[in-house]
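User: tokens in, sequence out, please.
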């Protein structure tokens, strides 16, 4: 739900000191839509208002002219409490039926809840009256939550559970990216203690086998090597009131992979059916994590999965990179030239880059390349073609030169190698961030940080974070048509129908629910200037609505 914004942390007015980031961001956004400037805000009082383990805040804001506002960013509908996630069309119906607030609120959605965003003018209040106003605001939001639950029960015939509580989740002791840690914590928070134990066992074993553990917003994906790529074998799913947590298994879909012997698939499926009752679909099967599915059965399942993965043969017709054998040997030889602490630094960066889908190449000992493959863009010059270039080079010691990390530079400005000139603003931020890190050195045309300066875990984490961010932002859409098509590809059938059938008021409401996701996912709040320009506006909210209108045109055209 958190909206990104061009107002960076640490640059808010003094009156924002101590105020939670999510509330600061919402205040800045509300100011940008009205005539109030953030510097006119004299005082902000606030109080947490969480609900069903989702973060929320309410507050009172007073300006220097003594104008006052009741503000809030708070969860009002938990999908866990109603047993399933509502789609955009259903949420729109529900909110229109509920009403309650004296002014039209804003709304946003994430994978687990719907949130209300309030900015309500109120009579001037003194500091001794703030508690009363906050109490009143909290009571109003609490009543609205009850209304939504009641109406959703009537509207969608949902059998609601009034209360349930799961133990606070702990993460397994495996190496994870920060984004995976956050998603995993959320998924585990929707599981009881028994299911959390099962999921921990499965993930630890998978990691020990050297396989990939990744996350989506709603699942934990367990993948196995398949030639040069990987395929999903299992995925762990959170529970809800109506459904137990479950292990999803790639089932008949396995037969689409020729390198997996058909006999091995049949033996695997037969063995799994003996372990536990299954819910089967055309391509997948599910094991519900109930008390009957014990840790011992989970271990037996993993044994059968290991047999299946072990049966995967060479992928016919797949050409392995010519440099692959040299890469493995080259990496090993390069690491041998480094001190143990330097080896761990290089291994950490390679693991982070590999897990993010980056290319790692080392044809000769001494230099390991972390390569970025770009896609074709509609703007820029070099960016209009796809490129595979060395973003980072991990070099072993040589002569007086220490082991170090070298950075490709001028990625938006170099005469012959501006491979990312489609996102010049983001490249400038990336290169600025790298240049301010401890140990950063420029020697002629080479920019590097000695590996010795990366022994500080925080500096190493900063480098990893920056290279992942620039990789992500290279994939931002840069034109209106491109953004609209990406949205159409990502949303489901129900959302497409709701958008196609919406009138202007309905489209505004849908935009209120998913507009923030558009802004965040496409970098509008973070300075995606090419896309803002293509949308014909410098305002991220307006641009996201222009994208919604383009999406509506596409889904209407597809439905005719």
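Assistant: Sequence out:
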């Amino acid at each position: 739900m958190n909206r990104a914004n061009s107002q960076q942390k640490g640059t808010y007015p003094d009156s924002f000191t101590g105020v939670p980031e999510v509330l600061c961001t919402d205040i800045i956004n509300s100011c940008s839509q009205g005539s109030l400037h953030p510097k006119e805000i004299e005082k902000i009082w606030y109080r947490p208002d969480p609900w069903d383990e989702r973060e929320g805040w309410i507050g009172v804001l007073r300006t220097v002219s003594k104008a006052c506002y009741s503000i809030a960013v708070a969860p009002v509908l938990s999908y866990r409490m109603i047993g399933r996630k509502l789609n955009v069309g259903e949420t729109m119906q529900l909110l229109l039926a509920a009403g309650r607030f004296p002014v039209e609120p804003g709304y946003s959605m994430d994978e687990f809840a719907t949130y209300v965003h309030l900015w309500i003018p109120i009579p001037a209040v003194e500091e001794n009256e703030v508690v009363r106003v906050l109490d009143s605001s909290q009571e109003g939001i609490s009543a609205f939550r009850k209304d939504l639950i009641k109406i959703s029960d009537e509207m969608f015939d949902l059998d609601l559970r009034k209360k349930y509580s799961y133990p606070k989740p702990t993460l397994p002791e495996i190496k994870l990216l920060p984004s995976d840690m956050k998603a995993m914590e959320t998924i585990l928070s929707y599981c009881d203690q028994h299911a959390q134990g099962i999921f921990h066992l499965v993930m630890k074993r998978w990691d020990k086998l050297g396989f990939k553990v990744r996350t989506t917003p709603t699942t934990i994906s367990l993948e196995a090597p398949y030639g040069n790529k990987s395929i999903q074998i299992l995925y762990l799913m959170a529970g809800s009131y109506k459904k137990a947590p479950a292990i999803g298994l790639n089932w008949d879909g396995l037969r689409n992979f020729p390198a997996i012997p058909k006999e091995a698939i049949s033996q695997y499926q037969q063995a799994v059916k003996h372990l536990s009752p299954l819910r089967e679909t055309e391509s997948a099967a599910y094991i519900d994590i109930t008390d009957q599915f014990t840790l011992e059965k989970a271990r037996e399942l993993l044994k059968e999965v290991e047999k299946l993965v072990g049966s995967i043969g060479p992928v016919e017709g797949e050409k392995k990179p010519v440099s692959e054998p040299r890469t493995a040997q080259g990496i090993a030889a390069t690491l041998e030239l480094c001190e143990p602490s330097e080896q761990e630094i290089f291994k950490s960066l390679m693991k982070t880059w590999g897990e993010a889908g980056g290319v790692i190449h080392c044809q000769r000992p001494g230099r390991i390349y972390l390569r970025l493959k770009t896609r074709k863009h509609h703007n820029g010059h070099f960016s209009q073609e796809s490129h595979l270039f060395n973003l980072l080079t991990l070099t072993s010691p040589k002569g007086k030169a220490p082991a170090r990390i070298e950075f490709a530079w001028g990625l938006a400005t170099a005469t012959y190698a501006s491979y990312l000139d489609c996102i010049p603003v983001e490249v400038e931020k990336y290169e600025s961030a790298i240049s301010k890190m401890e140990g950063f050195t420029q020697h002629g045309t080479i920019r590097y940080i000695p590996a010795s300066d990366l022994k500080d875990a925080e500096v190493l984490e900063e480098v990893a974070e920056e290279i992942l961010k620039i990789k992500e932002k290279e994939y931002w859409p840069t034109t209106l048509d491109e953004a609209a098509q990406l949205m159409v590809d990502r949303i489901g059938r129900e959302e497409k129908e709701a958008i196609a059938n919406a009138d202007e008021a309905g489209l505004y409401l849908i935009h209120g629910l998913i507009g923030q996701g558009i802004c965040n996912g496409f970098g509008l709040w973070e300075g995606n200037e090419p896309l803002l320009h293509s949308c014909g506006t410098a305002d991220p909210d307006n641009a996201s609505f222009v994208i919604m209108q383009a999406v509506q045109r596409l889904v209407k055209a597809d439905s005719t």
